[in-house]
Amino acid sequence: MCVLIIFFRILNTFYGTMKKLNLTVFLLLFLFSNQFPQDQPYVLLISFDGFRWDYSKRGITPNLDIIKQNGVSALSLRPVYPTITFPNHLSIITGLYPENHGIIQNYFTDPVTGDSYKISDTSAVRNSKWYKGEAFWETAGRQGIITASYFWPGSEVNVKHRRPYYYEKYEHMRDYRKRIDGIVDWLKLPYEVRPHFITLYFDATDTQGHQTGPDSPEINKTIARLDTLMGVLFSELKKIGMYDSTNIIVLSDHGMAEVSKSRVVEIDKIIGDNKDVQWNGPIMMVNAHKDSIPAIYEKLKSHEDHYKVYTKENIPEYFHFSENHMIYPIILAAENRWSLSYGKSSWNSRGGAHGYEKDEMDMHATFMAMGPNFRIGFHTGTLWNIDIYPLLCKLFNIHPRQNIDGRLDRIEFILR
Q1: Are 105 and 119 a contacting pair, CB within 8 Å?
Q2: Catalytic site residue 207?
Q3: CA-based nearest residue to 88, from 73, 76, 98
Q4: Digit-coded pLDDT (tens) for 189-200
Q5: Which of these is catalytic: 61, 85, 212, 246?
Q6: pTM
């Protein structure tokens, strides 16, 4: 820096008075645009899996209410279809619809190679070939931002430059308090190696919602438990002097609908068994020889009750669920709160389920945020989860990946 200043002083003296102004202006522009970049913000992105849009409106979440009062809260967060955990977490972190980022369900098979992706298969989950989108931590890392993840789908892929700088391998039973302590430990690192973007994940409301449903006393206890953990996080951030300087975003991937064994459509009784079928209750995909597809479709269409049947060619555009070779030729979308079953391993219609159409309010998720970059006491309508990625890029003043599906203009108004 001193060398540059001396250099420009010599040039100013040499070229005379008329040139001094131009050189001085150039020097100032150079220094301020290149030598003094803005400090990077701190952003903590927290996911409460299956935390429906109305869970924080039940009068049992005083710590989440602090975020609403001191930051931004949305009526709901609109998920992508299918409204399932991995597809939506990847859409949040990439700004892409599942047909474009590649994770179309929690379980699916590539009809070309026969390889399968299962969230219970650690090898598959860590195989980078499945992930076609660029996660925010990859975008940020290329532009000089240190990132970290205490769990997030796609964060532990087997290619180093596609992972966060710091990351934890997923352990479903990892104690929740240990997760918070891990976040705090990262924020206590020396400034030059401290992460500025961190993800944190909790499954509790999804797990309990499946077991007992979204309106049970048990789910209310789980909601209160997560809220208490937020209070612990606030306290720990205050202890290390990071509470006021950290942007905290709390969101979820999808909602939850009450289901029942009395609301099940047995698809195998319509089309017969021994078909290549992938399903999870609210959504089903059917594959067969191309010559058989029209007949199977017509059978399903003639019995269309409590579900909608589509082909990849006629599924409505707003589903954004056709432009991927791993999506089977026939897609069945169950009516909200109904389930589809197939064969002997019938769908276990437990207390709650998700995977229904994204515009069903039961499927809508939660969004709230507070911190130095967010407006204060601001309430807005429904936001879209594919817009989170461009919002994060805006927060860090970095260039997003081109050709994303998310749009900054739909969400940037929540910033100061």
Answers
A1: no
A2: no
A3: 98
A4: 999 999 999 999
A5: 85
A6: 0.91
